[in-house]
Amino acid sequence: MKCFIRYLYYLIYIELPLNITLRWKSAGITVAGVSGVAGSNATELNLPIDLALDSSNSIMYITDYYNNRVQKWILGQSFGRTVAGQSNGTQGSTARYLYHPDGICLDSNENIYISDTGNHRIQFWMKGATNGTRVAGTGTSGPANNELHSPYGVIKDSTMNKLYIADFENHRVMSYASNASTGFIEAGGLGAGFDSTHLRYPLGIHLDLWTNSLLIANFGANNIVRWPLGATNWTLAAGNLTGASGSSSSTLNLCTGVTLDPMGNIYVADAGNHRIQFFLENQTEGRTIAGVTGTISNASIHLTTPYTVRLDSQLNLYVVDSGNNRVQRFDRY
Question: Rounded to two decimals, what is the model's pTM?
């Protein structure tokens, strides 16, 4: 029944044909940044990490880690515009600045939530504003429930008006209700570990509303785990149960990002293997749909330490190709 409901949603809201194929062109198109070039001008990025697409799939918001800024990039243009942080890349800890921003998500009004990793806080940046407002963390690293230590992935559940945050160094995922000054431990929080009650350096996260669970890129354990909200342990979604790394079709190496399509299939940014892996729902064997396993370069068929993978409404892939300082789109055909 769950798969059938997903499929109905897919047909009604995604508006793709019944005979859809899940395959992608092997060569990517650079849609942001200059391939292989790190820089701070409007055409360049310096270690991009995450991106969010607007509802029209025509605008990207990109966290530009070493430039301490977020760039708004209209698809088809060769340059971005700074919408959070300073355009010259200056870092800081006041409301106008960012320090190594990582995760990003949008609300329905294109206001931005940013994991300001170096400042151990989540910043809310209203559309058009010149400064942000702290909505999670204290700005100082720590393990208390009102503190964060190097937060990375951040997602917003608009239905519950709640933020979920991958609290990397605290080996947990936190949730913050609207206007709350203290968070709640949703997953992990028992220190680093490999068993099903622990997380080990969680990075990317995805909220699956169909199963009321979090998918977590468990970076330090080389796997993707599913943690039902309210549960005390995870089940394995992709990768090795023991945490061992690998480059086979069933293993991962330093996975950094994860997302789902409306049918429940899993897409993984397998950074250490320089590829994007695709896992059909409930399958343990994946296939490479972008990049070439173990090969790095800035050629159009290659990736170098891809950090994040996103999907637009037509299931085209957007890959933050961090090591090549660019965003690549791989078109579905």
Answer: 0.94
